[in-house]
Design brief:
Layout: E1 13-20, E2 25-34, E3 37-47, H1 54-71, E4 76-80, H2 88-108, E5 111-115, H3 117-124, H4 132-143, H5 152-177
Parallel strand pairs: 1-4, 4-5
Antiparallel strand pairs: 1-2, 2-3
Helix pairs in contact: 1-2, 3-5, 4-5
């Protein structure tokens, strides 16, 4: 059997869309990963009005996510696996948004990966109980931004994309060999 070269950081490029789902505010962040080099391409917040019918709000979010996937040639979509213990009504809205984001990704042929908040904090700050301020400062530093990304939903989405940029190679190797 011939030796197969290992993938190197130099020749790998991936464009990742992180999404912080919410019915009122959905944060998004697009990061291009070239090995260890991370380039912010776009980030922001999709805001929907509570006076709009829920199905229309979901369509608005779906349309923006679909446009981002197309515009930036997204390969991977990343979501946070959120656990709700108190406010179950917001859990339903978040779950619906996660569903339409997954649908948009599937329609475009993108992979979808889900991380827990602890996994994201560990990958970005190195500490699973990092504060929101610590996360924002590290996202700023990793992406060489002049200031911490705003709003918070966009910062969270960028953190998800960065987490995946730092983790996907290991995940791919696990799939291949285990």
């Amino acid at each position: 059997m011939r030796n197969q070269p290992y993938p190197t950081a130099r020749n790998s490029k991936k464009i990742i869309l992180g999404v912080d789902p919410g019915i009122a505010n959905t944060g998004y962040g697009v990061v291009e990963s070239h090995g260890n080099r991370l380039i912010p391409r776009n980030f922001g917040n999709i805001r929907t009005s509570p006076r709009t019918a829920p199905e229309v709000r979901l369509k608005e979010i779906y349309d923006v996510i679909t446009r981002l996937i197309t515009e930036f040639a997204i390969e991977s979509v990343v979501l946070e696996n959120i656990f709700f213990s108190k406010n179950t009504s917001s859990a339903f809205g978040v779950s619906e948004v996660k569903g339409i984001v997954k649908l948009a990704a599937a329609n475009a042929g993108c992979s979808v990966t889900v991380y827990t908040p602890t996994q994201v904090k560990q990958a970005i700050v190195g500490y699973g109980k990092a504060t929101k301020a610590q996360m924002q400062k590290m996202v700023q530093a990793l992406l060489k931004l002049k200031e911490p990304p705003r709003p918070d939903h966009a910062a969270d989405a960028l953190a998800l994309a960065l987490c995946h940029a730092r983790s996907y190679k290991v995940l791919e190797l696990r799939k291949k060999y285990f």
